[in-house]
Amino acid sequence: MSDTFLTINGTRVPARMGETILAAAETAGLRLPKDDPALCAHATPCESCRIRLESGGVAGGDPVGQTVLACRATVAGEATLTAEPFPREVKSAAEVLAWRSLAPGISELIVLVDKPVPYLPGQHVTLGFGKAPLRRFTPTLSLDGLRELDTLHFHIRHRPGGLFGERPEERFRPGTRLKLAGPYGHSHLRQGDGRLVLVSSGTGFSAIWSMAVAARLGQPHRPVHLVASAHDPRDLYMRPAIEWLARQGVEHATLCASGAHPLPPIRHGRAMLHLPVLSPGDSVHVAGHPAMVQAVMQAAARAGAKTYGIPHVPAPAEAGVVERITRYLSSRKPPAPAPEPQPLPANVRQIRPL
């Protein structure tokens, strides 16, 4: 039984007080943007289901400007919300073409897809390989701005003892088969006229690079201001991409590192320190560490700019061989103790061995 009503993209639907906007919409048969159900962890929001609150009120939802997360915002009364159109999910498979090092601990995975996944620049897909859990990755282009037909490029961080093991290049040998699904995500590039401010940390640059190339080739009238950051200057693998953007007329591109004092032209400090002065006409896209994404989105919202975030939630470490064996042994039930010997009845004669 409904307590109130929501109007979502012009459709009036019943809702119960306290349930999430996403649950109310899906109960009514409406599609809202969201992540792969296998990866949707509401405790670590992925920004995939962010929608616009036009009027009324909701509770919670990590508000940024006039937007909320549909998976976390709960019904508090009548409200009107809108969500932009988005591509339908496609399930496909892919074959590894190459695994190349970009920086210490960062590599580029190139795959050939069996069936194209029509993603928008900035959207992500899920990859599955072997028995490893599904992971989100953002398709992008090679650092020279090119992409061959039906190929996808991914920038992947790996570390000893991590999800991909000690030698990921062996796991991703050419010919290895992968499962792929998507696209997902709300924070893709839109058409517009205002300045694009593109901000990344770490491998969040994969999403930013995809949007930067699409903007220069498809919306060349739009000014672009790019900030790419890392903790370690050695992780600023995107220098060839910055050179490509300069040849395409992008005058404002900043590389910065927060963990050490780098040599010029790299600047010292976090990405937040090198943001331009934001204005209501800007569209701000930010991808990388969740804390950095939230900080930039809040700064953009305070300036009245449109803002879209792509948080890269760190992957849990994959257990090593020793840890897996220890976990297995500790989970085994101890053997049942041997039963105590029972005395024989008085009328039974015991036969002694010879």
Summary tags:
alpha/beta; Ubiquitin-like (UB roll); 17 strands; six-stranded parallel sheet; six-stranded antiparallel sheet; 354 residues; disordered C terminus; Elongation Factor Tu (Ef-tu), domain 3
What does this structure look like?
The chain has 354 residues and is α/β, with parallel strands linked by helices. The chain folds into 3 domains: 4-82, Ubiquitin-like (UB roll) (Roll); 90-184, Elongation Factor Tu (Ef-tu), domain 3, CATH 2.40.30; 196-311, Rossmann fold (3-Layer(aba) Sandwich), CATH 3.40.50. The chain is 16% helix and 31% strand. The chain is built from 6 helices and 17 strands. It has helices spanning 21-27, 168-171, 205-218, 239-247, 290-302, 321-331, and strands at 4-8, 11-15, 50-59, 67-69, 74-82, 90-103, 106-113, 124-128, 135-137, 151-157, 177-184, 196-201, 224-230, 252-257, 267-268, 283-288, 306-311. Strands 9-8-11-6-7-10 form a 6-stranded antiparallel beta sheet. Strands 15-14-13-12-16-17 form a 6-stranded parallel beta sheet, sandwiched between helices. The chain has a 5-stranded mixed beta sheet with strand order 2-1-5-3-4, covered by helices on one side. A hairpin with a 2-residue loop joins strand 6 and strand 7 (106-113). The protein starts with a strand and ends in a 23-residue tail after the last helix. 36% of the residues are buried. The model is unreliable at 316-328 and 347-354 (pLDDT under 50).
